[in-house]
Amino acid sequence: MAERTESSIVIDATPGEVLDVIADFEAYPEWAGEVKHVTILAEEGDGWADQVEFTLDAGAIKDTYVLDYEWDIDEDGTGVLSWSLVRASVLKAMNGSYTLEDVGGRTKVTYRLTVDVKVPMIGLLKRKAEKVIVDTALKELKKRAEA
């Protein structure tokens, strides 16, 4: 059974501003180091991406995969954006969420991620790759949203 990695960071931007960065998938290769290429495959009627294809190179984990997104977001940008894996070559799970909370005009972002791979991999390496993905994503999100 896959375990989950979780981490949080406070960003000096409103939840709406942080959400704008998160929702701009096509810009991920500019700031999310492990994401090499992104293609939006489907959008909901409200303009939010529904399915997105990513090419990932996170050291021990390299793959091209498709995620399905659920947007449980309020008008102010607070709420939960979650995703689940639709298909991949190496990954058998890449499920997670961003939770955005307003903390006095700033945003607390909690990132939860579960990664599992089809090929045998030492649990320690898998957890390390998860932690790298989560920590790097939060730091790079903070840098991008505060720019």
TrEMBL record:
Coiled coil spans: none
InterPro entries for this protein: Polyketide_cyclase/dehydratase, START-like_dom_sf
Domain of life where this protein originates: Bacteria
Which SUPFAM superfamilies has this protein been placed in?
Answer: Bet v1-like
- Identify the PANTHER family for this entry: COENZYME Q-BINDING PROTEIN COQ10 START DOMAIN-CONTAINING PROTEIN (PTHR39683:SF4), CONSERVED PROTEIN TB16.3 (PTHR39683)
Q: What is this protein called?
A: SRPBCC family protein
What organism does the record attribute this protein to?
A: Intrasporangium calvum
Q: What is the lineage of its organism?
A: Bacteria, Bacillati, Actinomycetota, Actinomycetes, Micrococcales
